[in-house]
Design a protein that fits this description.
heterodimer, A: Alpha-Beta Plaits, Alpha-Beta Plaits, 5-stranded antiparallel beta sheet, 4 helices, B: Rossmann fold, Rossmann fold, 22 helices, Acetolactate synthase small subunit (chain A), Acetalactate_synth_ssu (chain A), acetolactate synthase regulator activity (chain A), amino-acid biosynthesis (chain A), branched-chain amino acid biosynthesis (chain A)
Chain lengths: 169, 587
């Protein structure tokens, strides 16, 4: 890959779930001028109090290497794994999408939701809240189709990702 | 083992004692009164009262940098902590091990905008290696020990422990240092053997090799410096040091090319530019070192050795990056070099040295000392000459005088040179000297400063007097913020905007007001006597030397220029200007 070419990377970070750890990670990105395209965090081990942060970022190969080295340097960080480099991985995101419409538009939104395997998790006579799970690209496509059909509010979780196969962090 | 239950302040003091702490630099306040009460009741740990919290951190840095130990700071909440921020940032940039204890309002008041409350962990997160807010008394002892481990291991740095007042007053169990181990923080010290072999093979095939060494060597310790000398002499290759690396290799040795970078020597920078194999050892390719990255050492293969993986490939991509402690890696390098009987191409190396000798002929640091006005470089050289038979430590502030000190004071040993490199903090010099003198009461400690820098922490004169610290402060007084003036002259059409020191105090009277000797020197003929007298006086002295106010610091690589486009200065006559729009934008 060319030194100047910017590419997108999904990075998993295992951290101690202690006060301020998320601020440390986010502060590192803002302080050093790195991009955050998406960031999710939740505790994954209640016994050891470990949280997993999934961050989608972009940069040149040198910048991506810096990001990983800088993350590894934080004292509460256990492991850093670049899912984009370490082999095939699964990325999923959940979105809740509110569509306010009546008549044909309302029916059309329901038909498209069906194609995308989105579920209506709330309904009134003039609105739906769809729940859709998939890759960020799939959610983007769904949102685009909902735009002319009364799209009014979006809430997305950001990406959660894990490597395929027997490989673990 | 039965748990020992103490109160929080006792735990803190016990932990400091068990960590081998002898002295704490601090300033009391409401939130840390319980700790100060505990300090009052004991005599194992000495407290040095500074006059501003920034100075406490610089003093701890001076102490740490001149001993290799951790410097300890104690300040109160709110303004105590915020005043410490500059010092913490300075320690972070220069990788100095410091543990800073900050007071905090009681836990139940945190977040309520209580009196002297500040979000200390929030504010110091980006300017510390790590920080802690202790909310659980059970974690107090563990946090104390962990902080010392984090501050001093790996790439050293400052660590803050924020201590709410109720934690200091309440009961807490004590743990010995041996009972505490960090779960995940464990820096790599041993370098990868395969990579070391590859690197040495690369070096053995070099025709124009160079060692470029930084503060990391000194942080690794005296042994690392000895190993560096052994490796350098075994291979016979040239070595250049960064500002932070001065003293890691003896300045007087013929293989030493002097400091490199913006105000480095001509031979060091030319050798960096023309080298074919570069070994960066404990150095981080700072912009002051590299100049324009697009033209940095264009024909070279690079090896970088650093304990911090994030330093490798940060600014300059290298061919081989070895993560490890410099001392450990150098030890392996020497072993392998000898075992494999590597030899450099003698003819090529000879040719390389001839080229270097040619650059040395420029005598880039030379100056003429006239009869009527004292050249600032001359002051540094004379202090160096007159302190040769003493154990001498040098601290500086920031600006022209700092660069002249770096260029003209030959440092032979590690730990003897204290300067604010990364952050460039004016006001560092005198408080750092406090810390050095506290650590080495019998040594000569000289602080080179400027008329502007000295004013930034002038209140520390009172600390010098109180503890009878016989620091010799030499002001190179040109009545300007000299480096600002130099840049304004070179880059901004000699428009000296706000860089003239309009109303300086009378430093002799000022010294006397603080209770020590002040001296003034204006005549070149009096300089040696003044320095000798200053050194003889048993107590603090400020020597105010009036120096040539037109003198610029050369050689100089202007911002945005490559190494081989240095300005040498000798051919200029005071009305030089750099025609560079790029330079105006860069710092």
């Amino acid at each position: 890959m060319k030194e100047t070419e910017i590419s997108k990377h999904t990075i998993s970070v295992l951290v101690d779930n202690e006060a301020g750890v998320l601020a440390r990670v986010i502060g590192l990105f803002s302080g050093r001028g790195y991009n955050i395209e998406s960031l999710t965090v939740a505790e994954v081990d209640a016994h050891t109090h470990e949280s997993r942060i999934t961050v989608v970022t972009s940069g040149t190969p040198m910048v991506i290497e810096q990001i990983k080295a800088q993350l590894s340097r934080l004292v509460p960080v256990h492991k850093v794994n670049d899912l984009t480099l370490s082999g095939p991985s699964v990325e999923r995101e959940l979105a809740l999408i509110k569509v306010i419409a009546t008549g044909e538009k309302r029916v059309e939104s329901l038909r498209i939701a069906d194609i995308f395997k989105a579920r209506a998790v709330d309904a009134t006579n003039s609105s739906f809240v769809y729940e859709i799970i998939g890759s960020p690209e799939k959610i983007d496509a769904f949102i685009k189709l909902m735009e002319p059909l009364g799209l009014s509010e979006i809430s997305r979780t950001g990406v959660a990702a894990i490597s395929r196969g027997t490989l673990t962090m | 083992m039965a748990e020992r239950i103490l109160n929080g302040s006792e735990v803190v003091l016990q932990a400091l004692a068990d960590q081998g702490v002898e002295v704490v630099f601090g300033y009391p306040g409401g939130a840390v009164l319980p700790l100060y009460d505990e300090i009052f009741k004991q005599n194992r740990i000495r407290h040095v009262l500074v006059r501003h919290e920034q100075a406490a951190v610089h003093a701890a840095e001076g102490y740490a940098r001149s001993t290799g130990k951790v410097g300890v700071v104690l300040v109160t909440s709110g303004p105590g902590a915020t005043n410490a921020v500059t010092g913490l940032t300075d320690a972070l940039m220069d990788s100095i091990p410091v543990v800073c204890l900050t007071g905090q309002v009681p836990t139940h008041l945190i977040g309520n905008d209580a009196f002297q409350e500040a979000d200390t962990t929030g504010i110091t997160r980006p300017c510390t290696k790590h920080n802690y807010l202790v909310k659980d008394p059970a974690k107090l002892a563990r946090t104390m020990h962990e902080a010392f481990h984090v501050a001093s291991s790996g790439r050293p740095g400052p660590v803050v422990i924020d201590l709410p007042k109720d934690i200091l007053v309440g009961k807490a169990p004590y743990l010995e240092p041996s009972q505490v181990q960090h779960r995940t923080y464990n820096p790599v010290v041993k370098g990868d053997r395969g990579q070391i072999e590859q690197a040495l093979e690369m070096l053995a095939s070099a025709k124009k090799p160079i060692l470029y060494c930084g503060g990391g060597v000194i942080n690794s310790g005296e042994q690392a410096c000895k190993l560096l000398a052994e490796f350098t002499r075994t291979t016979g290759i040239p070595i250049t040091l960064t500002l932070m690396g001065l003293g890691a290799y003896p300045a007087s040795d013929k293989q030493h090319l002097g400091m490199l970078g913006m105000h480095g020597t001509y031979e060091a920078n030319m050798a960096m530019h023309d080298c074919d194999v570069m070994f960066a050892v404990g150095a981080r390719f700072d912009d002051r070192v590299t100049g324009n990255l697009d033209f940095f050492a264009p024909g070279s293969q690079k090896v970088q050795i650093d304990i911090d993986p994030s330093s490798i490939n940060k600014n300059v991509p290298v061919d081989i990056g070895i993560v490890g402690d410099i001392g450990h890696v150098l030890e392996d390098m020497i072993k392998i070099w000898k075992a494999k009987q590597y030899k450099l191409d003698a003819a090529a190396l000879d040719g390389w040295w001839k080229e270097i000798e040619g650059w040395r002929e420029k005598h880039c640091l030379s100056y003429k000392q006239p009869k009527d006005v004292i050249k600032p470089q001359h002051v540094i050289r004379r202090v160096h000459a007159l302190t040769r038979d003493r154990k001498t430590y040098i601290t500086t502030d920031v600006g022209q005088h700092q660069m002249w000190a770096a260029q003209h004071f030959g440092f032979e040993h590690p730990y003897e040179w204290m300067t604010s490199g990364g952050l460039g903090t004016m006001g560092y010099g005198m408080p750092a000297a406090l810390g050095v003198q506290v650590a080495h009461p019998d040594a000569t400690v000289v602080c080179f400063t400027g008329d502007a820098s000295i004013m930034m922490n002038i209140q520390e004169c009172a600390t010098m007097t109180q503890y009878r610290l016989p620091i010799k402060t030499v002001i190179l007084n040109n009545r300007y913020m000299g480096m600002v003036r130099q840049w304004q002259q070179l880059l901004h059409g000699s428009r000296y905007s706000e860089s003239y020191s309009e109303t300086l105090p009378d430093f002799v009277k000022l010294s006397e007001a603080f209770g020590f000797t002040g001296m003034k020197c204006e005549n070149p003929a009096d300089l040696d006597d003044a320095i000798a007298k200053m050194l003889e006086i048993d107590g603090p002295v400020i020597l105010d030397v009036a120096v040539d106010d037109k003198e610029n610091c050369y050689p100089m690589i202007p911002s945005g220029k490559p190494h081989n486009e240095m300005l040498l200065g000798q051919e200029t006559n005071g009305n030089e200007a750099i025609d560079s729009d790029e330079g105006m934008v860069l710092v």
